């Protein structure tokens, strides 16, 4: 009998200028007996295979588990069937992934076991109909086909027949059992803003009397005082959330390969999720590594088109670019780990329509932002945003609004800023105000990043005829 102990790690191989010893790939030693891997080594290899697959599955599941978090928040807020919940104001937005403070988020997660009608009133709003994996099926409101006029959307789920009379409706087929409906109310006049919220409706086709009035989801309704801790859960809870989704939804063709991988981790449709102790340990470790990978994929992305200006550290966080050749796994994981929902109008290519986002994750030295330090940003005059612009700070770990004593994590063109003589505005980010006029409070021990939004960006944005400098650390 011939025994061989083989180390799969190729420590002497050079790849693209780096030795494998430097990269330290995680690869176990393998015992081979007469040309066949021994049972003990085979068990280790299978364990390693399952671990690697689980880390990749974390990446793939990010959009769905993000949706699950917001659906859970609606349940906590007692949002009922045929009803929307509204998320408004700093306190009630503090759990959402990277929200804007100056808009209302109107959200519902209906089960599509019957034809449903979503009535969207006229007014400045931007939203979408999505499936549970946050794939946009149709844009809504000012960015939709009706360009902000009142509209009726007829939602048809899998296996549901379309009613005979669809005149006056936009018929939208959603491939998942549960839809993700959302829009942002950006109507500026207070009276018209409230009227828009009152007139948003959801009801079964031909039964408008079943529609229920929108209600706010409030932070005071939750144990931790956050209306919506929508970030992806940690540890085994991530996989428990994913199992709930797998059990409820019908398999999509795009997901068959990933669903097959899940079987070896204890998640399979029609079967209880009862992982062994070994599986639990593996899943917890994979979630931890998946979290780190997702952070790198978002904050230090290698995606094409990620950097906006070569001369500064501003990036485009939304670079999802699926084609008929690939599904853009990294692009989707990057965006949906950092944010919630997407649509073409959120990365508009048309001047005066939709919105766009610029993110910054490090200072001019390439270092992340330390909540104990003082930083500033000089926003130049003439930001090319027809509606308004905002600068918002988020916690690096939760991707949610910074919690601070001032109850504000955002400044922008609607904030009554104190302007410099040249029309620019200096924004300051620090634990103490120290005389700063346009100030967002940060917290020692809490790292942060920021998004700069432009609503209805104008031609100068697309031509890059304006420039945002780096956020600079005070000397």
From TrEMBL:
Pfam families: DUF1214, DUF1254. Residues 356-459 form the DUF1214 domain. Residues 1-21 form the signal peptide. InterPro entries: DUF1214 (IPR010621), DUF1214_C_sf (IPR037049), DUF1254 (IPR010679), DUF1254_sf (IPR037050). Coiled coil: none annotated. Residues 92-198 form the DUF1254 domain. It comes from the Bacteria. Keywords: Signal. This is DUF1254 domain-containing protein. It comes from Vibrio ouci.
